[in-house]
Write a structure and sequence with these properties.
This protein has three domains: 2-32; 51-271, no CATH class; 284-415, Cytochrome Bc1 Complex, Chain D, domain 2, CATH 1.10.760.10. It is built from eleven helices and eleven strands. The protein is globular, with a radius of gyration of 25 Å. The longest helix has 30 residues, at 2-31. Strands 3-2-5 form a three-stranded antiparallel β-sheet, with no helix packed on it. With 416 residues, the chain is mainly alpha-helical.
Length: 416
Amino acid sequence: MQKIVGEMTFKKISILIVIALFAVVSACETIMPDEPAPEEVLAEPIEDLTPAQLNLHLQGDGEFARIFSQAEGLGPIFVQASCESCHIGDGKGHLFTALTRFGQYEQDGVTWNSLLNQGGPQLQHRSIANYPAEAIPNGVRQATFIAPNVTGLGFLEAVTDQTILDLMNEQALAGIVSGTVNYVDAPDFFTPKAHHIPNGQGQYIGRFGRKAAAIDLVHQTTNAYKQDMGITSDFDLQDPINYAVSGLSGDNVADPEIPAGTVNAVAFYIQTLKAPPRRNTNDPQVIAGENIFKQIGCENCHKQTLTAGPSIISEINNKDFHPYTDMLLHDMGPELDDGYTEGSVATSEWRTMPLWGLGLQKDSQGGTQFLLHDGRATNYNQAIQLHGGEADFARANYRQLSQAQKDQLFKFLDSL
């Protein structure tokens, strides 16, 4: 009898355990969201990487997410402690993580001064312990920049300078818009590739950043480590300094704080992130919106298709891709003129931002889109209404659309 009772007790306990496990699993299925579809995710590598390339990509991925401490060289003044803090999920940044740039024109009104001897071109509003954060000098011009998404940039890096110059010349001949390039001084560590074409002053075409002030992804990554995190590398040994305090760094960590290999790994990680995927391409409303996009003139600057040049990455090598940018700078009129610039471009000129990934942007911004370079627009209508200058004719055409046509245009933009 005791044996029978023991067996019954064991069976009851087993049944209770099974019921409990079922309840836990059911609860998890209710609480945990479904795994997102591939077309809804930005942070994935491109296809067909070799084992060595994938290993380097994963190394860069880890460094991209790394959170620096004061002991590792963070600061002494900085904006964020990791790359991921500005580019959440490799997507576009938020107003809470926005960057502030500043500078001023010289007395001639032509030469731009980035105020390097006063902490420019970027404000570092945070600091390590016992070191004061930076403040913007009086009387300077400043602008707010939201970090862009970093996906698909390897394709843009592989577009040849000749392709960019050809687009500029084609626009000049057509006479509708007139894009230009920003020739910038190359840093000492820059190694030109076969597709880079210098101008007569030894400068190269910038292609990354809101004002196209970085030539390639190593250049852009090196700048970000220093200006955003205060991390020195073999490529740039000087910490950012709060010149209102002294002319000396104050983090007491030997430079370089990271080796060139780390910068190269992060640049390669960004280079090998997949292009933002399209969605709902067969939706009649999306198709209609795409036709409207072309008809009103948006594609004059937001060019749908470009072709990459030679690349060691097979998925990029000489491939067509669809970023919706011409990679040129355009005068956007007084509405978007912040009075700030980088290099030789006008303060009202901005690089045509790629529109791919636009529909996924809010996922990295807390559910609300913050559009344009400074996040001042929170919907497509507001952003388009601020497009003046060379885009004024497209804006005028947009204003003639019915609300139904505008909704179709917005559905197309959401599909990118």
